[in-house]
Amino acid sequence: MPGFVIRPIDPEAHDEVALVAERMRLTLVEVLGEETGGAMYTREWLEDRVREHLDPARLRGQVFVAVESGGAVAGHTIVRIEEDDGGRAFGVFSTTYVAPDARRGGVADALLDRGEAWMREQQVTVAQTWTSDTNDPLLALFRKHGYALTLRVPEKKMVVLSKAFED
Ligand SMILES: CC(C)(COP(=O)(O)OP(=O)(O)OC[C@H]1O[C@@H](n2cnc3c(N)ncnc32)[C@H](O)[C@@H]1OP(=O)(O)O)[C@@H](O)C(=O)NCCC(=O)NCCS
């Protein structure tokens, strides 16, 4: 039995929205370094970006949090639906973050499963994420879930990983 449950974020809970926004910043710091990642966006911008994923009038998205039995938020994943150049919809995992003291306990595995289930509910058949080409834990996580590298952007040191859902 895992010691956490996965549920949608509570859009009315400002502390949850603020926590996920702060962890978006921490993700950027971990991936890009304090100097580049830490100063990229303001707190207000990040909180608005979280809220955008919860407002169907702005985009089709969702934020899932992993909540430990004591109530602490161990991690989150932000998902949304985008369209490719041909107008075909696909699912995107935006940031996925697990607090350092909760890592290696299967939290990200469970967040990915929940995010994919949401994408299937949205009727998309392809999911995608992108990250730094040196982010070995994230690359290993998505490869474990069947994702393959589909694009490399060397000038940005970024890679895209994709997966087609099986029926
Ligand atoms: C990547 C991250 C989300 C993984 O979270 P986690 O809860 O520790 O991951 P899990 O325990 O669910 O591990 C699932 C799989 O991911 C991979 N993985 C996770 N951490 C890893 C590590 N440090 N090294 C190598 N593989 C790792 C493994 O394949 C693992 O499967 P296994 O346990 O069967 O070997 C977490 O390390 C993190 O938040 N990193 C910083 C933020 C970040 O870089 N986010 C992505 C940018 S969008």
From TrEMBL:
This is GNAT family N-acetyltransferase. It comes from Eiseniibacteriota bacterium. PROSITE patterns: GNAT (PS51186). Transmembrane segments: none annotated. GO terms for molecular function: acyltransferase activity, transferring groups other than amino-acyl groups. Residues 4-166 form the N-acetyltransferase domain. InterPro entries: Acyl_CoA_acyltransferase, GNAT_dom.
